[in-house]
Amino acid sequence: MVLNFTDKARSMPVSPIFNPAGDDTIENRSIWFGNTTNLMQLNDVRYTWAVGLYKQMRENFWIPERLDVTQDVTDYWNLTDEERYAYDGILSYLTFLDSVQTCNIPHLKTSVTAPEISLCMAEQISQEAMHNQSYQYLIETIIPPEKRSEVYDFWRTDKVLKDRCEFIAGLYQQYIDNDSVENYFVALLADYLLEGLYFYNGLN
What we know:
It is a single chain. The protein is 63% helix and 0% strand. The chain has 204 residues and is mainly alpha-helical. It is elongated, with a radius of gyration of 20 Å. Its cofactor is Fe cation.
């Protein structure tokens, strides 16, 4: 669907919970602005890449308690003060990123009208929540007790980190406050920015 300037002012449509009059046929299915029943009709799909992506997502996640971080505890104390500062900041930043993703993706998902895409987004929501648990596990296991609150609040005290957090969260909040079509796709681009730049840099 091609957007025009008049689309900027109107609200982004939200899919009904159940729409018996919907049309999920492949030829009429679209990622947005479709007339979906909102049932997970996955026997025939238009976006076959989404099915492959979903299967890959199901194989590509970790459960924190299954990881042995004993060596990480030792390695943490072998870091320099500057390296520990960076490590603490990265953990705090990743916690923020996946926290806002857990909250934001459901808002974006409500306007998706292709069930195969919606399925991928549902899986992402689950994995973002699991990532949050993973960071908490690392903080509670590796970081000494007297420093844990400081790490959780690192984004409050470091100006660069706080500015980054406020920038990306502000783009998300803009859509929540004004659910226009334009703001929706700005929030979607912000989602790509978070995952493709912010999150990637935090892991490398």
